[in-house]
């Protein structure tokens, strides 16, 4: 029995050392580079063609931090077979009231809500397709607001500029 336990321990140590070696030999993730800035939007690329556009809103006394990223997926369709032109990934601080979801309002238009996908150590994340109608509003609009809830009855509007949105999206 003792010999068996020694073999198991040696096998476990060998397996752990192989995992550690594999982890150190894996390629490092590509760091993004800023390809261009269009108004309030930065276009960041991970390699030659894998690009996203991002805008960061820094907290003020009335608002919260937020990161709004737009992706132009290639060949992605929804459940009805319609092409998805754009995807949004929005990260807001932890502590938001999740059941209300996150609203997106362009100028004085009607807000559209999307559910939170999950919360990670950096914040709570919404990932959702941007409809063609909303994409058109964002291209034509001047400002947008991310609407998040602190409680069931208290909301915060985080302003995001749409300056340069069309040019940034066109460059993806």
The backbone outline, from C-alpha atoms, is: globular
**Approximately how much helix is present in the residues?**
10-25%
Instruction: Tell me the number of strands.
Output: 11
Sheet with the most strands, sense and barrel status: 7 strands, antiparallel
For the largest beta sheet, what order do the strands appear in spatially? 1-2-3-4-5-9-8
Oligomer: single chain
The chain-level mean pLDDT equals: 83
Query: Number of helical runs?
Result: 3
What would you call the structural class?
A: alpha+beta
Percentage of residues in strands: 35-45%
Task: Name the helix and strand elements from N-terminus to C-terminus, one letter apiece.
Answer: HEEEEEEEEEHEEH
Quick structural gist:
The protein is α+β, with helices and mostly antiparallel strands and 172 residues long. Helices cover 23% and strands 37% of the residues. It has helices at 2-25, 132-140, 165-171; strands at 33-38, 41-45, 51-57, 66-71, 86-92, 102-106, 112-114, 118-120, 123-130, 143-149, 155-161.
Describe the model.
- The protein has three helices and eleven strands.
- It starts with a helix and ends with a helix.
- The strands form two sheets. The chain has a seven-stranded antiparallel sheet. The chain has a four-stranded antiparallel sheet with strand order 7-6-10-11.
- It is 23% helix and 37% strand.
- It is of the alpha+beta class and 172 residues long.
